[in-house]
Every structure is written in C-alpha cells, then in structure tokens.
Design a protein that fits this description.
Blueprint: H1 2-9, E1 11-19, E2 30-33, E3 46-47, E4 49-50, E5 55-62, E6 68-73, E7 81-82, E8 92-94, E9 101-106, E10 108-109
Amino acid sequence: MAAKKSRANAKPVIFEITTARPLPVGQQVFIAGNQPMLGRWQPDGLPLTRMDDNTWVATAIVKPDAPLEFKITRGTWETEAVGDSGEILPNIVIDAAGKSRITAIVNRWRDEP
C-alpha cells in the first residue's frame, strides 16, 4: 500500500539545462541527484536529450514531499558543472512540490582548463 501512495504522490519535473558553449557531438548532459530517477548520485543518472546546440532537456518523476538535490555533469564527476573560477559547486536544492520546470545554465565544466 505504501508503494501505491508513493507513486500517487510522484510528479513530473522537466529539467532544462543550457550550456554556455555547444558540446561536441557525442557528449551528453546528465543530472545526478538524490532521488531514484536521478540515479541516486550516479554521475550519469538521468540523461538529457539535446534539443539544439546549447539546450538539453529531460523529464523525471520525483517525490515532491522531499527536497530535490542534484548536480549537472557530462557523465562523470570529473566533468561536472563548476563555478566560473573552477570551484566545485554545492548541490542545487529545489522544493520539488512547487516546481514543474527546473532551468539552469552551465558556464564551465570541471575538466576545462
């Protein structure tokens, strides 16, 4: 019965990630996060689909009764999104109950000089 309640409380959230520069063909953007559909912190948890040169989108079914925490990667922790000075960013934390679309911009990746 708990599983039915959990599914009933789940909701879709659209992730839309914009990269400052286009990624080469063959590279992909991922969401790594704390909920099952986000891969439970696996760096390639939720693959996003390239919509154009700089826009990546995916929909995840999440539990809105818990904070949604995530990071953006290109599939590994060595290629995660970082701050403008190259610093590791804290987790992005969102109240999933109030959001149906999450947008973020990636200006730099960890493996960039």
